[in-house]
DNA sequence: AGCAATCA
DNA sequence: TGATTGCT
């Protein structure tokens, strides 16, 4: 049996060294991390190089120690520890916690003393001991079983000192004489005086002759050199004091049992989660690599028939009959990873070939066929047994097509959702990207030939992956957002996608035919006015016609040429009748191509409905997005486009479309977040907020607010929500930037709480590197420190906008989850169809309308309690158009 | 501010 | 990929 090996680390010394040895380094949130980084890399290096059986890190507990009783000025010349280092001590402690490494500190004693005491005890108990520090004083501890590792220039480079190495570094010196050396030399860094004029050379010579400080003074007369003798005589007390100060107390009251320092290796999930939080990317890679190879850390066994973490040797069993399935699944008593084997890359094509079910130590591929059907695994899929998936919404969608309805109560967790909450800026990511980011592991390529193995392999990794994500989510206080909002919402969204929205194809085609006629007519008119035909859809050709041929002024340019955007064309409209026709053409063409043709393409033949996809893990703010088709941008502003909504009908004849939207949700959230009294007051009195803003900003009574004033105030309110810039507002209102600036200044004067909030949130973003929403959804803003004005300003506006937009997203998502549950509880037939950021669209039988209205309004208005009331407007009608 | 779709 | 337009 190999002997026990104890590694003792001088935490303070290493952190101090690391801080000054490494360039500045910060986490995403701006916290300095260079010292912790060095500390951690050193720890990991030690673990792999020394392979300790026992391990501890010692810290100084208090500034005042027993040494100060002896010499008040001890360490008196030390500079104040820099703030950037002070901040890192708690991080170092949490690092040790994450790595499960014991920490020791004792009142009145320094880390040295703890180390000396433990080293001595351990050596007596037959341990090999390694002491790690940056402080040469520790060399006094060296003996045949205690070696000292001193950090070299960097931090991971170590110089190994045994007795021989000490004698080499200080010619002829024994480790025990280190204190005598220091007694004579002193140590300016600790304000230990020593004997002035005695340096290392002289001290070593003296000690070679007389052994100790005591020996020197006993034989003072024999010392060569009168001046030296005089100095020694004069500073006798200093010499003895210095020796005492340098002497490590090997009898400190350390009430720690050596057994309790036994080191079993870190918990990989905790360690990785913590390193991820610190943004130690290279360490995340490194440690996951080490853990998958290091035989001392807990690993799945590599026995025959059992999976190892490595792809090549990965083994899994194929299950094809009910009996084997039951046996396999009943043997799991831990969270199980599940990967569905879709026959098609699009989950809306809900064909399922099989599924992988695996934990780190056992993996199966379940092949569906005659002897085992999906319905056989249904009880397990809907049970409360803990199961981990990647993209639950797609599973819930596909399984529903096979009569298996997953609910939030079914014991599922979702790696994709968890990963999104931790890094929303990455958008919709693949499983392989999460693996790469969280574990530093490359996933093998997904190939047809190894499909089943790939699924089993990845499934086996899902549970630990989820564990580490969940740990960080808890640390960032997003557990409620995950458990009570995003996770249950996935099931709600799956249901909405499954339901779809009925589209009256004939109406839509007729609408399109009307458009075609108008487009043809207007195209001819434009060609006549231009005197030539050209591609109206090409901004380049259009620009040539307008600005070169017709000689209209080019008001704005783009990177590639003239700008022909709507705001430019609107200014040119009075100058030539072709311009308005082009604007009309643009509108009609948009309606035709995007909405009529686009919608017709995605109506499902079988259902006559469109089944949009809601992306729950895409936006940086927490909003949903919608695609194929995007039902979140169906026209409404202009009547001609709005009519398109007439093609969206209820499923059944006697049903209606019901819509409920939050009134001024973002400004209400701003009122709450900022605590601005005027804004809060306005909403408590349910005023028309734009009129009220106009009255304040233009200093007139509300009755005298003109429509222009209200329009301008409305733009200011928008600007405020988006994080105002005078440039942006001037563009919006088509006014000089100076005037826009005055509007904003006026606004902030009337709403000082808003001003304070905006300043504070930007300050917070700078300090922490991120901003948060009401439910602690987080968004990192690394550009907030950019030297580039544009990028920095953008980050600042994002800092102002994200808490507002993101909190609104939190709010409506929470409402959706509750509404879904309430509708199920009440066994209603009504269905939620769409979410459009601040509104929800339903279809329901006419007779359910009153109950649905109450239920929806209640859950939306009371989703959260803010300092202003939440107001919901509702409407209904025979089509979406009529629900206004 | 945040998205998606279309076209060249 | 960029320009444009649709939505909140």
From TrEMBL:
Any coiled-coil regions, as ranges: none
Keywords of this entry: DNA damage, DNA repair, DNA replication, DNA-binding, DNA-directed DNA polymerase, Exonuclease, Hydrolase, Nuclease, Nucleotidyltransferase, Transferase
Keyword Transferase: yes
E.C. code: 2.7.7.7
Keyword Nucleotidyltransferase found: yes
Pfam families from the UniProt entry: 5_3_exonuc (PF01367), 5_3_exonuc_N (PF02739), DNA_pol_A (PF00476), DNA_polI_exo1 (PF22619)
Highest taxon, organism lineage: Bacteria
CDD domains in the cross-refs: DNA_pol_A_pol_I_C, DNA_polA_I_Bacillus_like_exo, H3TH_53EXO, PIN_53EXO
UniProt catalytic activity: DNA(n) + a 2'-deoxyribonucleoside 5'-triphosphate = DNA(n+1) + diphosphate
Function per UniProt: In addition to polymerase activity, this DNA polymerase exhibits 5'-3' exonuclease activity.
Family: Belongs to the DNA polymerase type-A family.
Oligomer status and interactors: Single-chain monomer with multiple functions.
Protein name: DNA polymerase I
